[in-house]
């Protein structure tokens, strides 16, 4: 109950109390003096008429107040309803925005996850491929080492054409390959490369042209291993025969060793270079 209703109720109670007091006075007046009845009746009629008028005015005022209250209530209800609808519309819009943002985030996360999955799969496939290649390489290396150990390198090659030696660093190239097991000898360079560790035997025959001297040597890698010499006798030949301990990758070859002199070596398969593996 608001202040207006409390005031209204208090006013009604006060008026009713006043009316009760007056009625009591009337009763006392009637009992004390019958002569005043007519006058009192008139007064009463006047009062009643006045009261009825007051009551009518009060009723009209009350009804007007009720109507105003209803109107205000309706206006406020309508206002509150508009505000509530506005709030609901705003809330609905925010929910839609949030849902859209969540959908975008979910799509972005799914796309990112898909990309990461693809990158991972690609990386994993590459790792598997590299692993397979590595395993294949290991198998090939193991097989090659096994084959190298099974192969007993051996070669024999002759000098097809006569050559003139004028440089002390010139390697004699015996290009007429007859035997080359294991492929250790290279006829394009005249160098034998060991395919496996072990003890090897090498031999060389040099046939000097027109009885002239020929100085030569057998090298292991870049170092002198043994010297050879063909003297100036007519159709004189010289030979060397050696044992050499080699590691895989070591090189053996024949080279000229007289600097500042031109010396000739007869070819036509008269001069030769040979070597073979003996044991581990």
UniProtKB/TrEMBL annotation:
Gene3D superfamilies: 2.60.120.40. It comes from the Eukaryota. One of its GO terms (cellular component) is extracellular region. Residues 88-118 form a coiled coil. It is found in: Secreted. Residues 148-280 form the C1q domain. Keywords: Coiled coil, Secreted, Signal. Pfam families: C1q. The keyword Secreted applies. PANTHER family: C1Q DOMAIN-CONTAINING PROTEIN, CEREBELLIN-RELATED. This is C1QL.
């Amino acid at each position: 109950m608001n202040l207006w209703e409390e005031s209204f109720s208090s006013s009604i109670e006060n008026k009713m109390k006043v009316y009760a007091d007056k009625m009591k006075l009337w009763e006392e007046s009637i009992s004390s003096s019958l002569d005043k009845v007519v006058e009192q009746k008139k007064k009463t009629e006047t009062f009643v008429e006045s009261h009825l008028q007051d009551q009518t005015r009060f009723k009209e005022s009350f009804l007007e107040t009720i109507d105003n209250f209803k109107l205000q209530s309706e206006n406020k209800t309508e206002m509150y309803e508009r505000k509530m609808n506005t709030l609901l519309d705003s809330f609905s819009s925010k929910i839609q925005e949030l849902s859209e943002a969540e959908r975008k985030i979910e799509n972005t996360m799914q796309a990112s996850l898909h990309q990461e999955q693809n990158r991972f799969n690609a990386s994993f496939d590459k790792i598997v491929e590299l692993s397979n290649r590595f395993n294949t390489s290991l198998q090939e290396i193991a097989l090659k080492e096994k084959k190298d150990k099974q192969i007993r390198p051996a070669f024999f090659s002759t000098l097809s054409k006569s050559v003139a030696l004028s440089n002390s660093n010139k390697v004699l190239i015996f290009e007429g390959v007859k035997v080359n097991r294991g492929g250790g000898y290279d006829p394009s360079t005249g160098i034998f490369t060991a395919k496996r560790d072990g003890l090897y035997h090498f031999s060389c025959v040099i046939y000097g042209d027109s009885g002239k001297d020929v100085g030569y040597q057998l090298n292991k890698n870049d170092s002198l291993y043994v010297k050879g010499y063909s003297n100036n006798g007519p159709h004189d030949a010289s030979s060397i025969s050696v044992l050499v301990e080699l590691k895989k990758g070591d090189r053996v070859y024949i080279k000229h060793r007289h600097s500042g002199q031109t010396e000739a070596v007869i070819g036509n398969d008269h001069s030769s270079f040979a070597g073979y593996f003996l044991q581990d």
